[in-house]
Design goal:
single chain, 291 residues, alpha+beta, Nucleoside Triphosphate Pyrophosphohydrolase, 2 domains, six-stranded mixed beta sheet, 7 helices, globular, NUDIX_hydrolase_dom, Znr_NADH_PPase, NUDIX_hydrolase_CS
Length: 291
């Protein structure tokens, strides 16, 4: 069974508590309640590489508390610090931390990070422009005090895919990647578009490939800031590439032996693969392991 990164959180999201002010108040006063420790928006890890939790008393003064959910019946929260820089960047520290964290821990953190980031980006009402929006539903929404519109956290759908031709797959690299790294191609799903259509369009736009037989493989959250990555594979009849250099620095076809060597980290392998917590890593592994 595939186990992508950022999945498997032990959190019970406790939706019933979000709509019950009394139950939410009881969770806030529960002596067992725990607060996620953060360094800015990055996680603080313990010696085992797991998330570090403290008491609610550690929250910054006047910082709203967002209910992440329950673990073994115990409420778990994250504090919303409005002084945090809007759209906090991905620091090198976060990727080092993700390399240490078990997937289920990364999953819990991903939910917290995306939720905090959403609040930082949505303090103003998108309908009337008022800044008088208040947190509600235990942190899983905001409500405008001017027009009454309710706003809820959203995720952006992204397709990430491998094109196949004659026993090979297409991999590409962007300029910001570390030296030697290649990954699966990816792009946002546009309004009025299916997943299959988005896969075909992105492969044509970025690499000039026409594909067919698009098949869904697996999905994964990606909290930078809040995407749902949907991994797919598609067949190409013609391997000729026309690379869009505004999107890709390079793209190459790699056979099974080359992908195996890359995933194993062998010297002289064709490319450096994505880290294990990235869904592209899961997609490469699936492609190698399927019959």
């Amino acid at each position: 069974m595939l186990r992508p990164g950022f999945t498997g959180s032990p959190l019970d999201r406790a939706d019933a508590l979000r709509n019950d002010p009394d139950a939410f108040g009881a969770a806030l006063s529960d002596w067992r309640a725990r607060l996620l420790r953060l360094d800015g928006i990055d996680p603080v890890l313990d010696e085992q590489g797991r998330l570090s939790w403290g008491s609610l008393a550690e929250a910054p003064e006047d910082a709203p508390l967002l209910l992440l959910g329950l673990i073994d019946g115990r409420p778990h929260f994250a504090a919303l610090d409005y002084d945090m820089p809007l759209g906090a960047t991905r620091s090198p520290a976060i990727f080092r931390a993700l390399g240490e964290m078990p997937p289920e821990e990364a999953s819990t953190y991903a939910g917290a990070r995306s939720l905090i980031d959403w609040h930082l980006r949505h303090r103003f009402c998108a309908r009337c422009g008022s800044g008088d929006t208040a947190i509600h539903r235990a942190g899983w929404g905001r409500k405008c005090g001017n027009c009454g519109t309710e706003h809820f956290p959203r995720v952006d759908p992204v397709v990430i895919m491998l094109a196949e031709h004659d026993g090979r797959v297409l991999v590409g690299r962007q300029p910001q990647y570390p030296p030697g790294r290649y990954s699966a191609l990816a792009g946002f799903v546009e309004p009025g578009e299916s997943v299959e259509e988005a896969v075909a369009r992105e492969l044509f736009e970025e690499a000039g490939l026409k594909v067919r037989d698009v098949r869904y493989v697996v999905s994964q959250p990606w909290p930078f800031p809040s995407q749902l990555m949907m991994a797919c594979v598609a067949a190409a009849d013609d391997p000729t590439l026309t690379i869009d250099t505004t999107e890709l620095e390079d793209a190459i076809w790699v056979d099974r032996a080359g992908v195996e060597a890359s995933m194993a980290g062998e010297p002289g392998a064709p490319f450096l693969p994505p880290p294990p917590f990235a869904i592209a890593h899961t997609l490469f592994r699936w492609w190698l392991e399927r019959e």
